[in-house]
Amino acid sequence: MDKVISVVGHAAIDLLFDVENIAVHNESHPIIEYNEYYGGGAANIAIAIARLGGRCQLISAVGGDFASSGYESELEKHGVDLSLLHRFENEKSTRAFVFTDREHNQSTYFDWGASVHLQELDPPVVDFVHLATSDSTYNAKIAKKAGFVSFDPGQDLVTYSQENLESILENTNMLFTNRHEIQRVCDMTGKCFDDILEMIGTVIVTYDVKGSIIHHNGEAISIPVVSVKAMDPTGAGDAYRAGFLLAYTRNYPLGICGRIGATVASFAVQSIGCQTDLPGWEEMEKRYEENFGELVSPA
Amino acid sequence: MDKVISVVGHAAIDLLFDVENIAVHNESHPIIEYNEYYGGGAANIAIAIARLGGRCQLISAVGGDFASSGYESELEKHGVDLSLLHRFENEKSTRAFVFTDREHNQSTYFDWGASVHLQELDPPVVDFVHLATSDSTYNAKIAKKAGFVSFDPGQDLVTYSQENLESILENTNMLFTNRHEIQRVCDMTGKCFDDILEMIGTVIVTYDVKGSIIHHNGEAISIPVVSVKAMDPTGAGDAYRAGFLLAYTRNYPLGICGRIGATVASFAVQSIGCQTDLPGWEEMEKRYEENFGELVSPA
What is the H or E stretch that residue B97 is in? Predict the structure, then answer.
């Protein structure tokens, strides 16, 4: 039976807007279309793992509107375990408001809502945990107690204290970053990339449309993207991590974990929203084999 | 008994956000706080007139969410007649998303929702109408049939064709603009201010915190603002128009109409949102008399 993957971070309700122009200071612009989507990095990853048939658990802070919004039942429907959710009935759930213009420029506003309380909480002990964008103090506490730690500081890296970052890295077994973030991790810790890699063991660096590179044990495994007609890049990184992590807990070699991640990501970019077009394992496997050849199960 | 004032334009649901910074292209910024408010220029004016004890009617296009949002019952509670609403069950209601930073810069996104259909509609015949920000084609059609036309093109002036603007102005008895808009009206029509004034009869130009000037019959009546501790300037202009128009239909002289408008506006700016702190007639009268002396009823 699969290991339970505990995913820590946001379950957010996103309003995604298509606009003629980004409204800068004292401008007013019309909205072409907008809709509400379920998002938040951790919830995106959890639901993607569940859709692939994995066992996973979401550890987030949510507000009183979480049930009434329909998000709770959506996660439950796909089999995500919500028993460790931190519930704050008098707060709003985390929300993002993302405006995208015709040239794909984005302007984002983010309300932490109930997540402001994460830093005060005492996290549970978990076995295999992935730390997505979240409160750095909470992430540092849970990393100390977990059996295996996968860590993705994401764009919140700028909010991490050096102390929290170093504490998490000391407990991290697998690090996901993009090429800008890995540079910042080096700058903040005063370590070079090779020192970081030696400390952690496995570092995956993503390069947008150029794919990703898995660094491990002196090797650098290059993973291409799986090309599809992309509608919306949002959520591609989360889908990649979901595929990668589930494959990893199923004992696939790292190169195959990366290719499975890239395949799952190719589904996420096909439609607008982060959770609208996620594949089951068989669907993923079919597209994997069209792109990479036979997917051989680990021994 | 009071004349019915028919107010044409938007009934919008506004989300007002306090943010650290306006997010320009490819920036992401946190939200400090946000809340939903009922707004839309025409609905703001209608509800303010109703609160003052006047009779008024809202002519707007609304979506299927208008009843479920609670806005419909809010307007009914205050006695606004909704019998001439244009209802589009499969559309969203008009919405604005307004982001305000700590230096009071604003960035606004606006979704017309059901209001996109206004241009196709055949408006009703009304007696005394105020045209707030709305579709210019609809405004031009209703102005042709109305007994008395008050017109406020507002920031939508840039969307008016010269033809619609000239057609409305020919039927307008009273024009409200700010100092930028009156210049644009002159530019678009190729007329100087005196020509516009002669054609219309009464032109009220607003100057933000410097008050307003009523131009009529060779006179220019200067109206100061009523000073209060201002929390949110949004809705001040709508409240001014509401007070002015109700006083006008009650046969007060123009100078008193302006001072009543300024008094009502001073309530609107006291709290966040456009409809949160509107006065009844007696409350208005009390503050009017503290600032301007006795409010003598018209003969």
Answer: strand B95-100
| DSSP codes of every residue in B124-162 | PP-SEEEE-S--HHHHHHHHHH-SEEEE--GGGGGG--H
Per the DSSP assignment, residues forming a β-bridge with B213 are B205, B222
- Residue A238 within any structural domain of the chain: yes
pLDDT in tens, A215-255: 999 999 999 999 998 877 778 999 999 999 999 999 999 99
Domain total of chain B: 1
- ipTM of predicted complex: 0.73
Residue with tokens 């046969």: B251
Question: Residue B177: which region, alpha, beta or left (left: phi > 0; alpha: psi -120 to 50)?
Answer: beta
CATH code where residue A171 lies: 3.40.1190.20
Confirm if A95 and A12 have CB atoms less than 8 A apart: yes
Alpha helix stretches (DSSP H) within B172-275: 179-189, 193-200, 236-249, 254-268
State the residue range of the domain holding B273: 4-22+32-291
Q: How far B100 CA sits from the closest chain A CA (Å)?
A: 9
Residues in chain A: 299
- Beta carbons of A28 and B99 less than 8 Å apart: no
CA B210 to chain centre: 18
- pTM beyond 0.90, yes or no: no
Asked if residues B143 and B171 have their Cβ atoms less than 8 Å apart, the reply is yes
CB spacing of B28 vs A105 below 8 angstroms: no
Report which of A49, A59, A60, A58 is spatially closest to residue A2, judged by C-alpha positions: A49
Distance CA B267, CA B226 (A): 9
d(CA B112, CA B135) in angstroms, rounded, equals 10
DSSP state of A81: B
CB contact under 8 A, B31 and A99: no
Give a yes or no: residue B101 inside a domain: yes
Give φ, ψ of B226 to 5 degrees. Answer: -95, 115
List all residues 6 or more positions away from A64 whose beta carbon is below 8 Å from its beta carbon: A88, A89, A90, A91, A92
